[in-house]
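YM 10:42: Autophagy-related protein 14 sequence, as discussed on the call
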Amino acid sequence: MECDICMRSYSSRLPFCCPSCARSVLYEPRLRNAKLLLEKEHLASRIESIHSSAKGTDKTPNTLEVRQDGQAITRWSVESRNIQKAQAKDRTKVIHEHIQTLRAEIKAFREEIAKRKAMLQKKRSEWSTIKSAVSERQKASSEKAQEEIKKITQSWDTIQNKAIETRSFLCREAAHLHGLRQRKKMRGGVVRDQYTIGGIPLLDLKDINSAKANELTTSLNNTAHLVVLISFYLSLRLPAEITLPHRNYPLPTIFTPTNSYQGREVPFLGTTPTSSSTNSPAGSRHTDLRPLPRPRPLFIEPENLKDKTPHIAKRDSTAFAFFLEGISLLAWDIAWLCRSQGMYAGTESWEDVCNMGRNLWNLLIAPPQSPALLRVLSGRDVRQQRTITPSAHLAAPYRSLRLGHFSHDSAHSFPVNGADFLRGWKLTKYTMIVDPLKRALIGEMSNAEWEMLEQDEWDDGGEQFRADEAVFIRNRNSAEMEGRSSFDDARSIMTARTERRSEDRRVETDRGKELVDADADATVAVSGRVKGTSGWTKVKNREK
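YM 10:58: structure's back
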């Protein structure tokens, strides 16, 4: 039987959980006990009636027995029904009580639900109010923050512009103090630019065959010092590290990009490194056993003051090859500086990069050009510039780039933002400059068949002719074969005359090919020129 309170059925495995379960279990034994007691009482009354009837002769006891028996039976049925009725009432009462309890709980739950709904509705209304207030406050805060950011950005831009002006001023003053000048020179009827630094010509690297070694060394020394000073003012780290002269280091050198900025003390070329380490095991553990990098020289050591580059190249080809790498690295650093500041002109080909004087002049001193003439871009650069979209605060500076805009020391215009200017550069390695330069210079020296005659050489042994003198032209080979004198084999007589030539003569020299302005009266003679003039002539090799 299932309990109305704990809703469980009693079994032999489960104990009683409540008094109701115990009463429910005891109902049947009690009923059986009551039934047995009633039967016992009935039997006792019958036995009593039979016992009393046995003593008398009257027949009424039988009737009484039947009547009493019927009454007893009727009383038993009434009692059992009353008991069943009482049980039914008890169960009904328990069920009603349970129903009332459930109804009370349902009512309490409904009240709780209604209360929570009202609370949620109140919270929703409060949330909507807070949300609208927060959105307005957030909008106001965002506008205020944008205004603050705009003010800070404007202040930042102002400071950056002042820093750019300061860097530009320092670089230009350094160039002026180093004597970087541009001069116009007439060569071959064409006006060409010639650049000097410290009063010494800053030659194009393709023309160093005609330079004296001491002048070239001085020019490179001044150029290296100026480039290092500019990189210091611009706070830029050059791809190839330059070492300026200092104590026990008399001349400048330059490292390759892979050996640059290692933080190791490298001795001067040709000297022995001074080791401060001890022979103790503790000291040897801290000694760097890696081989020292070899810097490339930015100087030439001549035997005398009149030695030129070809003589040194013939004397020591290995040192000359390292020297070519050094000057190529210096020109590459200058081109990288120009490229990092947004100046593309003079950096597209190795021939343009070799003209270090022009690149330094355009970077430091030349007035800024109009945006239409700011630079000469290749087709690939134009396509890349169309795809590049700088950030908002860098868009305006990109339109008006100036010297000192990009710097490793500035978070405003860090060079990573200007990496687009180096992305389309073809000359990403210095070997792309040194290899063609070496081929050009060595090929020029090996193919040289012309030598320069000085004034004394023109005067010595040079016969002077007047305009009315005759020149004998003979066949030397025929005279020697026939055994005749040189005067007997004259074939013709040519009278010397002057003529006006309106075009320049192209003369090959051992320094290269130059245009020589010969727009003047020249006496055409077989033996030589008029005294007082000097020029180029083809002579036999003096070493033979």
